[in-house]
Each structure stands twice: as C-alpha cells, then as structure tokens.
From TrEMBL:
Family: Belongs to the MscS (TC 1.A.23) family.
Cellular component aspect of the GO annotation: plasma membrane
Location of the Mechanosensitive ion channel MscS domain: 142-209
GO biological process: transmembrane transport
The protein's name: MscS Mechanosensitive ion channel
Organism in which the protein naturally occurs: Syntrophobotulus glycolicus (strain DSM 8271 / FlGlyR)
Transmembrane segment boundaries: 12-35, 93-114, 120-140
Pfam families: MS_channel_1st, MS_channel_2nd, MS_channel_3rd
High-level lineage: Bacteria, Bacillati, Bacillota, Clostridia, Eubacteriales
Amino acid sequence: MVKNIKQNHKDFFHILLAFRSPALAFLIFFVLYLAIKALPYFDYSAGFEQILDQILRSLLILTIAWGLNNLESQSSFIFAGLSSKLQLNVDKMLIPFVSKILKFITWAFAFLIIIQEWGYNVNGLIAGLGLGGLAFALAAKDAVANIFGGVVIILDKPFTIGDWIVDGGIEGTVEDINFRSTKIRRADQALVTIPNSNLANSSIINQSKMGKKQVQLKLNLFYDTPGEKIVQVIAEIKEVLHGSIQIHQDNIVVTFNEISNIGLQVLINYFTLTTDGEQYLQIKEDINYKIIDILEKHHVHMCGQEQIRYSDNR
C-alpha cells in the first residue's frame, strides 16, 4: 500500500510537471485578460467582450492541449511504465510512434474545438474535407505509403532502434523511426534518411540479429615461398585463432587454398563472436597484426596488387 501511495505521488508530480509551463503561460494571459477588463476605458460592448472571452477560452484549450502533449511525450511516465510492462525491444519503436499519433490527435481535437468556439461549422468543414478527399489522397499517396511502411516495420520487426542494418548500399545503425522515414547513422557518422515505403519493400540484412560474423582473408604469397614455411605460417595462424576467446572455435579454417595467377594463396576463414561493428573491426585488426608478425618472423612475403583481400560475408 505504501508503495502504491508513493507511486501515485510520483505520477501526480509528473502530471504537474507536464502542465507547469502551459499553466504559467495561461496565468500570464489570464492576468492580462483581467487587467484589460479592469481598465476604466474598457469597451463594455457585447461584441468586444465576447471576442475577449473567446480568446481566453481558446488559450485555455491550447493550454490543455500543450499539457497533454507534454504528458504524451515518449519520455513521460506513462510510456515509461508501459515500456517496463511490455519488457520487449519493440517498445523502442512502438512507444515513439504511438506518442506521435497521440500528439497529432490531441492537436487535431484542439484545433476543431477552437474552430467551433469561434462559430465555424465543424461538420461543414469535415464535409468539405470529404469532398476534397480524393484530390488529397492522390497528393498524399507517397506520404500514406510511408506511414503504412512504418506500421509494417513496427509490426513485422525486421529491425529495431539501435540495430546495425544493411539496405542495398546503405549500412549503419538505426537511430529513429517516424511516420515518414527511418534514420540510419552510417559508420562515417553521416545520417541517411530512407522513406519507410522503400524499407518495407526491400531486403534488409540485420547484422545485429546475427549470432556471429564472418571474416575471410586471402593471402597471396610469392611462388618461391618454401612449402615448409607455408606449413609453419598456417600452423601459427591457427594457433593464434584458436587462442582467441573472441573467435568462434568451431569454424576456423586456415589452409593452402590454391596456386593462382597472383601467387600461392592461403585462405583464412573465421567468425567473431560479436556482431557489433566497432568490436568486430577491433578483433579483425588485432588478428591482422598477429598475422603480419608471423609472416615477418618466417620471412614470408605477399605478392601482387591484391596482396590481402577481405570478404566480409554478411
């Protein structure tokens, strides 16, 4: 019971915080309203007083909408509680999406109420919008497609915020999903915005969902490299890979692969246990330095323009 009381006090505090700025702004306008009506030369004509009252009521509606907008923020206690109850990664996408929908509905209702407050026929306005619905639908076809694309992404969950994905030639971390588009941060820190309709209809590779990530190297050695040195190099590279706790031990391949037109090719294939982009590059770099040390130790040199080739099989 004590816990519930504390939670209720906390929730009430969040509500007060959401309405604090709107209430202060309305208080200023209300004081101004009273000051105008208290002026000795105030025009007490019915028309002017009615307009003044309509302005005050409109400001009150905007104040309530502003407070509800703050309350519907994705960082508010309502969505924080929903997130903890769901205990799912999908809330990272769903909560901001629902938050934006609720904000749109709030401001739409506020607009309609204010319009009605000023004597306009809301039903007539809606009917007029209905007559222009076809033209609007044609003009907003792409926007609607992007909204439905966003819904498909959220429901189908091919990725979530924070995942590293590949879509065609674009690769990076998902930063945001909104009504129209998805924002992806590339490795060079460039922010790419992709329409949701494009993502919903494309083949997406989600590297964050991979249990391991492949690295494949092809070392081309000179033709005159002695066979026993190749054997020693292969054995020591295997030892390095098997000695690393960051590499999957069941998929290590180091072999004299072929005699190509470039040279004697040694194939190295392994999988990192992490799929995180930064950690993956660090592991690969550490292994590369150790391979270079082994080659230098045995005085084995690589040849050709493509002396070392990578193939990151994703």
